Amino acid sequence: MSRIFAALRSGHWPSLLGAWLHFEISFMIWLLIGALGVLIAEDFRLTATQKGLLVAAPLLGGALLRIVIGPCSDRYGPKPTGAAVLVCELLVLLWGWLGPATYHQVLAVSLGLGVAGASFAVALPLASRVYPPAHQGLAMGIAASANSGGMLAAFFAPRLGRVLGWQNTLAVMAVPVLLTLLLFLVLVRDPAARTRHRDRVPWWAGTIELLRESATYWYCLLYAITFGGFVGFGSFLPIFLHDQYGLDLLDAGSLTALCVLAGSLARPMGGYAADRLGGLRLIGLLFPALAGLTFAAGQFLPIRWEAALLVLTVAVMGLGNGGVFQAVWHRFEKQIGTASGLIGAAGGLGGFLLPAGLGVLKDTTGTYRSGFLLFAVASAVAAMTVAVMRKRDRQAFEDRDGRGFSR
Questions:
Q1: Which pLDDT does position 401 carry in this prediction?
Q2: pLDDT higher than threshold 50 for residue 198
Q3: 51 close to 41: Cβ distance less than 8 angstroms
Q4: CA of 253: how far to CAs of 29, 38, 89, 154, 259, in Å?
Q5: What is the C-alpha separation between 299 and 319, in angstroms, rounded?
Q6: DSSP 26-54
Q7: What DSSP string describes 288-343?
Q8: What is each CA distance from 140 to 134, 227, 323, in whole angstroms?
Q9: 343 pLDDT exceeds 70?
Q10: Can you list the domains of the chain with their CATH numbers?
C-alpha cells in the first residue's frame, strides 16, 4: 500500500483527482439512458430491438466523438477540452428535460448524451501527462476507474425516475455536472503548454498516422471487447434483468450497479498488475477467462448464480481494460491523447454493438442466449490473437538480444 501512495505522490494528484471526477460524472451521464431504459420503454411500448438501440445510442455517440476529442486534447490541452465537454453535457441534459415527445426524439437525445463518453479522451491523457512513465498503468487505471459513474447511474437514476419521472431526472443530473465543471477548473493543472502542437499540422493528422499502424487495429479489437463489454453490459443489464428474470426497476438497477462497481474497482488493479507483469501477459490470461464466464452467464442459471457470474464477468472486463491501456501507453506514449480517442472510440463502438445486437438477436431468435454466445466467441478469438502477438514479440525480442520476454 505504501508503494501505491508513493506512486500517487510522484505526480500532480489534484489533476488526477480532477480527471477522475470528470470521467466519474460524465460516465454517469453516459449510462443514464440505460439506467432509465425500463421507464422509457414502458412509456413508448418499445420492442427489444428499439430498447437495445435506445440504450446503445449514447455509446455510439461517445465512440464517434472520442475520435475528435482525443486530438483536441493533444492540440489544445485537456483542461479547456474537458470544460467544453462538460458544457455540452449540460446542454443535452436540458434538451432532454424540455420534453422529447416521440421515440425518435428520445433517440436523438440519447445520441447527444454520447458527448459524455468523450470524457475518456480527456481524463486518460490528463492522468498520463501529470505522472512519470513508471506509474502510467496506475495513474490511468485510477482515472479510468471512474467507470464507477455507471454504478451511480444504475443505482440512483431508477429511484429518481420512479419518483420524478425520467425527464425530470435528466434535469436533476445537470446539477452534479455543473459542480464538476467548477471543480475541474479549480483542480486541474493544464499541461497543454508542454504538449499542444505549435505547428500547422491539421488536427486529424495524428489520427491518420495512427491508422497507418497495424497495431492500432489490434488494440481497437481488444478494447472493443473489454471496454465495449463493460459499458455495453452496464447499459443493457437493467433491461436484460427485467426481461429475462422479471426483476423490478430497483432490483435490476441495484444488481447492475454492483456489476459496474466490480468492473470499476478492477480497472486500476488491472493497470497496477500490468505495470508489474506486463500488459500483454495480463490480458493473455484474462481473455480466456472472459470467454468462459460469458458462456456460463449465457446459460441463464438461477438468479443468485447468474448474479455472481455477471459480477465476475464485468470484473474481468475491468481488469482487461487496465491491462489493455497500459500496453497502449507503452506503444503510443507520444500520441496518448489521440490514441486514447481512437482506441476509446473502438471501445465505445463495441459498447454500442453489444446492446444493439442483444436486442436484435432477442427479437430474431427469441432469446438473449445467442448474444451471450456470440460475445463469448469474440472473446475466445481475441484470446488467440493475444497468444499469437505475444509469441511474435517474444521471438523478436530473443532474436534481437537473446533475452526473455517481459512484456
A1: 43
A2: no
A3: yes
A4: 15, 10, 23, 5, 10
A5: 23
A6: HHHHHTHHHHTHHHHHHHHT--HHHHHHH
A7: HHHHHHHHHHTT---HHHHHHHHHHHHHHHHHHHHHHHHHHHHHSGGGHHHHHHHH
A8: 12, 14, 10
A9: yes
A10: 7-189+201-400 (1.20.1250.20)
